[in-house]
Each structure stands twice: as structure tokens, then as C-alpha cells.
Design brief:
This protein has 124 residues and is mainly beta. Strand 7 and strand 8 form a beta hairpin. The protein starts with a strand and ends with a strand.
């Protein structure tokens, strides 16, 4: 499994970006794909996650209502649509694959596969 996050960039406050997480390796063995971010000088934090089977999605309170996670099974790709971006959304965003149970879906330690991150910078 090789995950690759892409789609980051520089955007103004209130703007939008769509990140993609593509598996370029073999079939996804992970039932959950999570998005995490690490702001400058801070710890990595959970952003959103989606289950391949069923498509249930989960969000951090800080992004609920602004970000949407979705998947395209045919393309083996998970997306993170980010709207109404704020300066505090500035971070390196990474996607990860794992099989955490629902109650632990925000725990980065439970994700086995990680892709390289993509930088998102929101300017005010």
C-alpha cells in the first residue's frame, strides 16, 4: 500500500482546496482512510476519516461543516474538500490507512499506512 496525498497549495482566507489521497500500490487493505494535519510547531491532529465499506465519515469539531471527506472506489482515491479555509487550517496534511474501531478512529497511532503530506497554507 502506497498512499500519496496531493492537492495542497496557497489559498486566501475563505477559499477552498480539494486534497486527494491515492493508493498507488496494491488493493487497499485498510477499511478506514483518515486525514491528519500538523500545524507548524504543533502536534499532529485528526481532521476527518471515512470508511471504505459503508462510507461513514467522521470529523474533528474544528472542521465540521467546512470540510467534507469522500471516496471514489473505482479510482481508489479519497478526497478532502476544504471550504471556508481559515489561517488556523495551515498545516501539512497527510492521509493514512488503518483499521481502527469507531471509538478510536481519531487516534493516529492506529493507522498503519501513511503517505507523504501536502502543504496547505491559508493566508489572511
Amino acid at each position: 500500500v502506497q498512499l500519496q496525498a496531493s492537492g495542497g497549495g496557497l489559498v486566501q482566507v475563505g477559499g477552498s482546496l480539494r486534497l486527494s489521497c491515492t493508493n498507488s500500490g496494491r488493493t487497499f487493505s485498510s477499511n478506514v482512510i483518515g486525514w491528519f494535519r500538523q500545524p507548524p510547531g504543533k502536534e499532529r491532529e485528526f481532521v476527518a476519516a471515512i470508511k471504505w465499506s459503508g462510507g461513514s465519515s467522521y470529523y474533528a469539531d474544528s472542521v465540521k461543516g467546512r470540510f467534507t471527506v469522500s471516496k471514489d472506489n473505482a479510482k481508489n482515491t479519497v478526497y478532502l474538500q476544504m471550504n471556508s479555509l481559515k489561517p488556523e487550517d495551515t498545516a501539512v496534511y497527510s492521509c493514512a490507512g488503518g483499521n481502527p474501531i469507531q471509538s478510536s478512529i481519531r487516534a493516529s497511532a492506529l493507522y498503519k499506512y501513511w503517505g507523504q503530506g501536502t502543504q496547505v497554507t491559508v493566508s489572511s
